[in-house]
UniProtKB/TrEMBL annotation:
InterPro entries: RNase_H-like (IPR053151), RNase_H-like_dom_plant (IPR044730), RNaseH-like_sf (IPR012337), RNaseH_domain (IPR002156), RNaseH_sf (IPR036397). This is RNase H type-1 domain-containing protein. It comes from Crotalaria pallida. GO terms for molecular function: nucleic acid binding; RNA-DNA hybrid ribonuclease activity. Pfam families: RVT_3. Residues 85-159 form the RNase H type-1 domain. SUPFAM superfamilies: Ribonuclease H-like.
Length: 160
């Protein structure tokens, strides 16, 4: 991997995904255009800033289970399962609603991420679409043991 470690690539990959997601939403919901060159500069700037602020000396595995904010943290699925975290996003009246998510294995390793433009729908429908899309993607990849996690209690109750 050259001069960058495995942890560096993990960090860089996360920053790239975050930047793409941010600019995509800004374009879809606010009509803002973005520069690819500017985005690349932004990615490297954020990478270098984080590397300076947080020296990664241990594998990312040690971070697993640490609270992200307000006691919220990612918890691993049972052994042999993957976890699909999904979310829906609605921009009232703009027909630019989306659902997406990420699937990770029991060690927290990235498996696949997804997003889909839904058109115009309710928040509940966007949440439910996220769960459905995540399960369909897992099945398409031959993954049968899936824990789906949503942030909408109403959607969870409807699925149960």
């Amino acid at each position: 991997m050259g001069r960058y470690s495995f942890e560096d690539w993990n960090l860089l990959f996360g920053i790239i995904l975050d930047t793409i997601w941010y600019h995509r939403n800004n374009r879809n919901f606010n009509g803002f255009l973005f520069s690819v060159v500017g985005s690349v500069r932004e990615i490297w700037s954020m990478f270098n800033l984080i590397k300076q602020a947080w020296v990664i000396e241990t594998p990312l595995q040690r971070l697993r289970g640490m609270p992200l904010r307000d006691g919220i943290r990612w918890e691993a699925p049972p052994q042999g399962y993957v976890k699909c975290n999904t979310d829906g996003s609605v921009n009232q009246g703009q027909a630019s609603d989306v659902a997406g998510g990420i699937i990770r294995d029991e060690a927290g390793n990235f498996v696949v991420a997804f997003s889909n433009h839904l058109g115009l729908c309710s928040v509940l429908h966007a949440e439910l679409w996220g769960a459905l899309l995540g399960m369909k993607l897992a099945l398409a990849r031959g993954i049968r043991k899936v824990v789906v996690e949503l942030d909408s209690m109403v959607a969870v109750l409807l699925i149960q």
